[in-house]
Amino acid sequence: MPTLQVAEASNAAFSPTYIPIAVFAGGTSGVGQAMAEAFARQTNGLAHIILIGRNAEVAQTILASFPKPAPSEGDGWAHEFVQCEATSMKAVRAVCAALRTRLERINFLVLTASGPKANSMVECGETPEGLDNHLAMRYTSPELDTSTSRVTCTQKSYSPLLARAREYGQPAHVMTILGAGLGFKIPSDDLGLAAARAGTVKMLQGAVISTAAMKGMMRGAAYNDGLVAWFAAQHPDIAFTHIYPGQVATAGKLFYPGWLLTPLAWIVGYLRHVIPQDECAQYMLHALLDAEHGVFIRDNHGDVLSSHVFPPDHQARFADDSRVGFLDGVPMKGYGGSDATVAGLIDYTERALSTI
After folding, report:
1. pLDDT digits (tens, 9 = 90+) for 38-64
2. Which of 126, 142, 227, 241 keeps 20 to 30 A from 110, CA to CA?
3. What pLDDT, on a 0 to 100 scale, did the predictor assign at position 243?
4. Is pLDDT at 143 greater than 70 in this prediction?
5. Which CATH number covers residue 18?
6. DSSP string covering 242-281, please?
7. Which segment of the chain is annotated as a signal peptide (predicted)?
8. 249-256, long-range: CB within 8 Å, 24+ apart, which pairs?
9. E strands along 33-186, which residues?
């Protein structure tokens, strides 16, 4: 486990000879904001940094704080904001398409977008497009046919730009920040949680807890395991990471992405393990700058729990193995998928998004 000092020293060694292009979806608050700020400082502003989020006013304040390179340091850098409601697949597609037409490449794509409904243990329901509230933000909003929210941002929209970075001999890394290493299983039925939402809420230590909301939180983490595994299989030359941020104090609030199974766990965790968002960002950035290609499951300090690089013939047997915790025949610590359930998840996702 690297110390904070080791992570900071590793980040400080990043000194690219090119202008890196980094996209932070969810970059206007929390860990995403802190990562973008740390990246801007590390590059002395000599980077093309794109923040994607809801709040334009907040974004402009963040962008104004970035270091601005001197004219003698060259051009090609830019700091910009793109507004997007990430629970809407149509909005995500539009943003992805627009960026695809004007960007030459992408080196780093960081997915941290969240929202009140995505973190609620009480509220559950559907978006106007018929997707589960929790999954729309934590999983579907990235999209398979254009890059779902995290699926949509990765496949057809951004993968060619990432591939081009690799062609130039530059890093290409997609990082989704949610619940890596927790080993939640990918189910084989009710993948969209329609049956769960039709059920009832339960009482837990005097609080009303929605079973569907809790399932949405846990499945969001499991589905992100499947997401990075699938994309790494399709693009063996690109790095795909699912990482756990831990319990993070963001803007004076506790960010604990869905694992508050009881209020008691929340209180104990808050007292013992919470770190500031800027500190978390150093660990996340350390992991972002530390991968060549393949799939990675990482903990809250950026340590690799498990990883795998796919061989050329991987697609022929991707759906054949039903062993949980195995990927392409390799045991993966902290990984909750199996080749069969990941294939089922991708099939469900493609069908769900095809109607939007």
Report:
1. 999 999 999 999 999 889 999 999 999
2. 126
3. 95
4. no
5. 3.40.50.720
6. EE---SEEETTEEE--S---SHHHHHHHHHHH-EEHHHHH
7. none
8. 249/274, 249/275, 249/276, 249/277, 250/29, 250/30, 250/31, 250/34, 250/277, 251/29, 251/30, 251/277, 255/30, 255/31
9. 48-53, 78-83, 108-111, 173-177
Q: What global pTM score does this model have?
A: 0.86
The string of DSSP codes covering 127-145 is -TTS-BHHHIIIIITT-TT
* Mean pLDDT of all residues in 8-25: 95
Supply the range of the domain harboring residue 164: 4-354
Token pair of 96, please?
């992805």
| Residue keyed to tokens 């300090």 | 301
Cα–Cα distances in Å, from 57 out to 18, 65, 98, 299, 319? 30, 13, 21, 33, 46
Q: Cα Rg for the chain, rounded, in angstroms?
A: 19
E-strand ranges in the chain read 21-25, 48-53, 78-83, 108-111, 173-177, 201-204, 207-210, 239-243, 248-250, 253-255, 275-276, 294-298, 304-308, 326-327, 330-331
Q: Read off the tokens for 131.
A: 């997707």
